[in-house]
What we know:
The structure holds 2 protein chains of 2 kinds.
Chain A: H1 2-21, E1 24-28, H2 33-47, E2 51-55, H3 58-66, E3 72-75, H4 81-87, E4 89-103, E5 113-115, H5 117-125, H6 134-138, E6 151-155, H7 160-172, H8 174-178, E7 192-194, H9 196-206, E8 210-215, H10 216-221, E9 225-230, E10 236-237, H11 241-250, E11 275-283, H12 289-305, H13 307-312, E12 316-317, H14 320-329
Parallel strand pairs in A: 1-2, 1-3, 5-9, 6-7, 6-8
Antiparallel strand pairs in A: 3-11, 4-8, 4-9, 4-11, 4-12, 9-10
Chain B: H1 3-13, H2 26-62, H3 65-68, E1 72-73, E2 78-79, H4 82-113, H5 116-130, H6 134-160, H7 166-170, H8 180-204, H9 208-216, H10 221-232, H11 234-250, H12 253-258, H13 276-283, H14 289-322
Amino acid sequence: MKTLFTAAIAAAVCFGGIALAADLSGAGATFPAPVYAKWAEAYKTQTGNALNYQAIGSGGGVKQINAKTVDFGASDKPLTADVLAADGLQQFPTVVGGVVPVMNLPGIKPGEIRITGPILADIYRGIRTKWNDPVIASYNRGVKLPDMPITVVHRSDGSGTTFLFTSYLSLQAPHWKSGPGASDSVNWPVGIGGKGNDGVAAFVKQTPGAIGYVEYAYAKQNHMTYALMQNKAKRWVAPDAGAFAAAAAGAKWSAAPGFYLLLLDQPGANAWPITGATFILMHSRQENAQTGHDVLAFFDWAYKNGNPAAEALDYVPLPDPVKSLVRASWKKIVGADGKPVWH
Amino acid sequence: MPPSTIGRTAAVGAHRRPTPRGSAFEPLFRAVCFSAATALLAALGGVLVSLAIGGWPAISRFGLGFITSVTWDPVQDVYGAAGPIVGTLITSALALLFALPIAAGVAFFLVELCPPILRRPIGTAVELLAGIPSIVYGMWGLFVFAPVFSKWVELPAMSAAPAGSTWQTLVQGIPNGSGILAASIILAVMILPFMAATLRELLMAVPAQVRESAYGLGATTGEVVMKVTLPYVRRGAIGAVMLGLGRALGETMAVTFIIGNAHGLPKGMFDAGSTIASTIANEFNEAGPLQSSALLALGLVLFVITFTVLALARLLLRDQARL
């Protein structure tokens, strides 16, 4: 009887402890928020452990994890290895997504028009202002391009999508790199700004001759006209899950300290040129080893069981070898005693 | 009669008032009211001070250039806010221009002309309109109003404009239903119910005998409104207008959706622009250190503009009370 009583107390203490430790909190990027929410919901049903994610934006995620107000931060814009080391952070990718140029061209179906990176940069710089521009036409023989002015649409709010897009333009055109540059928000030379992906999508739909850029899920769900893009292998590719996965698979993750990799213009034959992963940030040294362990347990669970949920929401899961690399990197996250929290 | 009562009667006889039963709570009541009022003042001061401290790095770096330059470049960390400041002033002024005649019409109708059976429903509808969240106006503006505005106003106006005329300069921009004019119209719809309700209250406060005397002298409804009741509430009406303007200056979400969000000075009525509030809403989440500071400094500028408007309104309302 006494033993039973002790066991009950022990169990109560133990479960109580777990329940306290399991209320995990994270904050940051809005782009992966739907999939994190979906994962958290399924994780709670399966394990009983709750995770609360606040989509406050990538910049906010970095600020919050540095202030230690959350157990993990999330950012679409990876931090460089130097910054990670200086702030005592570890970083790893979770899912991959793509940015897609979309347009409103009467008479042109999705995938009928072809665009290269340098042309995209020229359009966003205001250098090419007509759809029937000879250089655009030279890549689109047989397509009847309208004699219409190009209206440029960009994001008005700072976002990881803009960061990826402008980084790609900087990569493709020296005049963009030395001009507006690459950031969450830049000094746009031309065009109008829509708030969020839906704002950009709405402006593009309402403006004949408009071009914009949105996350893949928006382009797909709104059946928008997208362009085929030329990738590094000089092949024309359509934006779809396979093309994003090809970009993620072809990338040299093992050679990227802190997984700092933008997946732009990757070498794979089928790789979509404007692809990017979204990242999780954690402190290398966890004050509470149990919390650190629980966060990693969640992402381990998501790597194992989360692919269908991610795919249903039009995200691309990481290739398995990359997941193994990430798990190996978790050894660097240690508790107060210096021992890895994940084993 | 018990002895204590006799004692109290004697005191009254000596011209001493009895202590009221609730007197024990009086100091407490005063303290609560006083601290509520001072806490509000302290909060206001706190906001002003923290905006000034937060914005100081940007203000000290760019000086006067912060409000005169139009370059807003987060990559180079150069911030000049002339575009958003001008955008704020233009959209608010235009919104006022559009909303004021309609608000006045609504108020006159409700007070002077409306059949009693319609007065309550229309009055309630106006108040309900004031309660619609601004993001709803924004979504409506972007998805419903903008396509209609583009098709029936912007495109005809642009194609009708003679080449090289002032008219053409005024209507340049992208005819997709967004821009300065579209944002001003949405703002007008938003401040209209607020101003209409305040004007109605003011007109109803006009003493009945003033209005009745005018009617008695044979004045028409139009003459009563123009020559009697409107002059009677003139200063108060200006105050109501200023309050509407104050709201238009600070409106954020609806404007962000529809204004087109381009930094720099708008070239025409259909061109994209930005306001102080929309710029802050767009960029605060992902702002770097100096950019955050520039946004806080923008907040300070808006605070000063709004404060000036409200102080003017207060001044005019005080004069009204003296009448």
